[in-house]
Design brief:
Protein name: Hydroxyacid dehydrogenase
CATH topology of the largest domain: Rossmann fold
Family: Belongs to the D-isomer specific 2-hydroxyacid dehydrogenase family.
Distance between the termini: 30 Å
CATH architecture of the largest domain: 3-Layer(aba) Sandwich
Pfam families: 2-Hacid_dh, 2-Hacid_dh_C
Shape: globular
Strand order of the largest sheet: 8-7-6-9-10-11-12
Keywords: NAD, Oxidoreductase
Number of domains: 2
GO molecular function, one term: NAD binding
CATH class of the largest domain: Alpha Beta
Helix content: 25-40%
Number of helices: 13
């Protein structure tokens, strides 16, 4: 019996995921993610696994009316037109939550790096300027106010570490009260707030944990930066496009806020002449918050198993549009 064929666009996050995929399917691999090229390759496969910055658009899906599944390589689905896939009855799978600890640790690291002026001290020490210790300030985290924008899996891990580990005053903004989240927040001593302006204006640190969609795209802009304290810092480990980068540059360059820690950009990779990259009060990492060795292994193998399960008529562990399977199975 021949194996189903899968189009793999760009390497998976861990080689073990590719091993699992190849055990269950015949894999066609490409590193060229131009839409026209993908439309040509997709005609001969039953499934797609892709990694950003590659995208699966309406055109790619229309090029093969017999696609059985599309999968992101990790957590996010913003590089897949999930709405159109749902219209066509194509399951879209991924590996949510598996990166929550890695990304939460990264957000905390950026907060610590900003508070302790790690990068300025490092740069001065390389220049032999030991006296920088007398001119560059650093701050304790204990007692400082941190505002989390969102309170999903990653934000909850951040909240736990900052509240219980550093004794910070943590407030999380949510669109609406959800009993389960409110209960967890109460258990660990985190405040819940539905007024985002209040969170921005009162916090010493803002950490973004919202998904990218049409409502959130470029939503963190001048309006919110103007509310922040001049001594406050912004951290973003969610998606680059939830922030208006031009407004953020202006806020940082004009000292409206003290600094920023960024792991995500719009687009990715960012242009080498992106103004944000030139600022001295920004700590930058190349979207590695959720790509630790441990997390990469779990993400890649979970993704591969999800895809093989659907191709074999089984229910996947994680699916981004579960209504598709309900329609297909009549559940």
């Amino acid at each position: 019996m021949s194996k189903p064929r899968v189009l793999q666009i760009l390497p998976m996050y861990h080689s073990n995921g590719e091993k699992v995929l190849r055990e269950g399917a015949e894999v066609i691999q490409t590193n060229d993610y131009e839409i026209a090229h993908l439309c040509s390759l997709v005609k001969d496969v039953e499934a797609i696994v892709l990694r950003a910055p590659a995208k699966i658009t309406k055109e790619v899906m229309d090029a093969n009316p017999h696609l059985k599944v599309i999968s992101g390589a990790g957590v996010g689905l913003d590089n897949i037109d999930v709405s159109y896939a749902t219209e066509k009855g194509i399951p879209v799978v991924h590996a949510p939550s598996v990166n929550k600890v890695s990304t939460a640790e990264h957000a905390v690291m950026l907060i610590m790096a900003l508070a302790k002026s790690v990068v300025p001290f490092h740069e001065n020490m390389k220049k032999g300027n030991y006296d920088a210790r007398n001119s560059i300030p650093s701050f304790e985290l204990k007692g400082k106010k941190v505002g989390l924008i969102g309170f999903g899996n990653i934000a909850q891990e951040v909240a736990k570490r900052l509240k219980l580990g550093f004794e910070m005053e943590v407030t999380s903004w949510v669109r609406e009260f959800i009993p389960e989240k409110h209960k967890y927040a109460h258990e660990i001593g985190v405040n819940i707030c539905t007024d985002m302006e209040e969170v921005f204006s009162q916090s010493d640190f803002i950490s973004l944990h919202i998904p990218l969609n049409e409502q959130t795209r470029y939503s963190i802009d001048q309006k919110y930066f103007s509310l922040m304290k001049p001594s406050a810092f912004l951290v973003n480990t969610s998606r680059g496009a939830v922030v208006n980068q031009d407004d953020l540059y202006r806020a940082l360059n004009e000292s409206m806020i003290a600094g920023a820690g960024l792991d995500v950009f719009d687009p990715e990779p960012p242009s080498k002449d992106l103004p944000l990259l030139s600022l001295p009060n920004v700590v930058l990492t190349p979207h590695v918050g959720g790509t630790t060795v441990e997390c990469n292994y779990v993400m890649a193998t979970t993704v591969a198993e999800n895809v093989i399960n659907i191709l074999n008529g089984k229910r996947p562990r994680f699916i981004g549009n579960p209504e598709v399977l309900q329609i297909k199975t009549g559940e």
